[in-house]
């Protein structure tokens, strides 16, 4: 459903994402882990066509994102790190607005309230203006917006950031439901626990490169944490972001365990 | 763009735009700033409407009374020589345009009354601005001022953060991620601002239309006035729509709301206050007008070629010889018609040619200056809107000149009638010839109708064209800026 093919993005010669090859199938949750600046959000932005790729292609349901951005957006839903809404409208009005724009028709109020309830927002809060909402409440409206669209693919950028543990737990259950419904989910997150809990596969990014991909079934939470921290420590020592052409060379600085993962990725290309 | 076109997901452009516009309007109506600024503007417009209407009624009433008095004085001047009657003269009062309550134009500065007398085409007198206090030099509160200066400011305040606000809030990402096209956002937001501004202006426009129904149609019929009003509204609609497009375009092109606001305020200041003055100065440099003294000196110099009452003037002798030859006589006493009458008529005719030439040249300079000023309208639309507004309101130079021409023709009508009476009835050598009220009554009171709406519209074609070009330019800019819109 979601496919990146040699997907590359450079800003003024500085590579933010380097030749990413990735496939997220229907009913799969792929979690992108990595430090800030690793390229997770750039990947999401490329799938949303918020930025245009320097090279390579991002495909959604086989459709090139750059070639047919509007057609692609029929198939995807997106939840950013901080869901931003219109403060003078209520949560329900915000949901109604975005849903109407996304679907081209209004959904009945009771359906919208049901979606908000499923996202974990209390009914009385739905009628209050968003200006009084906490970050977590706004996030729940964002989840409801994404659910309302019944999209085949879901792009999540740090979706649980700011959610309280209970809300985060409800969110995990929601992702499980969507996965069971056959939705392909690509989630950028720092939350190792969430990634292990809900992810089908986990990819670890470092300076624009997907250095490791693994299935969560084969992995304990502690293993994931260890690998992640190894990569993160390598990132910290790495200095400036790579320029075009330097990126692959830099991967050789990774710990030996990680070099294997990179080699695996190269083979996959 | 076909607004009814079906796009991805079964959505129609019209449906998406309608949803956006409604949401924008709801947000606007829930914003207390809109009610404050809108309320103030509405109040100012109602005050301007009331003050303008009262002023127009007062001046029109005064003119009507004075017009009746001066004509009665003409009729009651008693028995006298017709040429003395021509010198007795009359005041001609420019009728106040019923739409002057919207835009008083140049009436305040050019005067409304002219003394119609023998031999001379006089300048207009009684300029209200001359009697104004120093405070009034800052300008008066008129509908035109509110619509030309304050309404764009409201639009700037409503529109500057239309896109930058979405980007800064993060909602732009949300909108673009669900497949909303930037141009749909532009049209939706534009329609919302049009609806909000329209809600402020429509009641006032309606009041204005109702007020026109109470206008005494002595100088303009209702059809003329309603047609002028409709075009006036169209001109202001083009101007304000252009401002809405500009505000949205600048907001889409700016990286922050602060920058958008500063840019738009800078444009508002230049458009409203700097460009009109700069263009007036430029027009004066490119096409200078003579000073009043220079103009009068030029006229006096030209008039030296005519003989007036000077019987020693070579032209007088030449004309006398011409008359003698025509009537085959050698003495004035032998002429079958009044020689005095003939000389007065001849002198008047010579004067008409000189006045036409000099005033024609002066008005041509004014027209050239106005065209130069109008060119600035391609960038700063007030330069085109202001003359358009005055033109449709009937308070511009064109209407002033039309009345000046009518007053001059009236003067010539009096001169001709008085000279003809002398030619027909005065016996050469009789120094006691007098005429009476019967002759004075042959001269009707000056009735000047405001030109038909189509004349004013045709006269303002250039300004309307420039204004429209500016609006389409602003829309094109907004569309281009919006298409380049990025959420990051």
TrEMBL record, chain A:
InterPro entries in the record: AAA+_ATPase (IPR003593), ABC_transporter-like_ATP-bd (IPR003439), ABC_transporter-like_CS (IPR017871), ABC_Transporter_VariousFunc (IPR051782), P-loop_NTPase (IPR027417)
Region (Disordered): 239-269
Name listed for the protein in its UniProt record: ABC-2 type transport system ATP-binding protein
PANTHER family in alphabetical order: ABC TRANSPORTER ATP-BINDING PROTEIN ALBC-RELATED
CDD domains listed in its UniProt record: ABC_DR_subfamily_A (cd03230)
Spans traversing the lipid bilayer: none
Keywords, alphabetical: ATP-binding, Nucleotide-binding, Transport
Cited SMART domains: AAA
Entry's Gene Ontology molecular function annotations: ATP binding; ATP hydrolysis activity
SUPFAM superfamilies reported for this sequence: P-loop containing nucleoside triphosphate hydrolases (SSF52540)
Record PROSITE patterns: ABC_TRANSPORTER_1 (PS00211), ABC_TRANSPORTER_2 (PS50893)
All residue ranges annotated as the ABC transporter domain in the record: 2-232
Automatic annotation (TrEMBL), chain B:
InterPro entries assigned to the protein according to its UniProt record, in alphabetical order: DUF3526
Recorded GO MF terms: ABC-type transporter activity
Name by which UniProt lists this protein: ABC-2 type transport system permease protein
Coiled-coil ranges (or none): none
Keyword Calcium: no
GO CC, alphabetical: plasma membrane
Entry keywords, A to Z: Membrane, Transmembrane, Transmembrane helix
Keyword presence, Transmembrane: yes
Organism: Methylobacter tundripaludum
Record-annotated membrane-spanning stretches: 34-53, 145-165, 186-211, 231-253, 260-279, 461-482
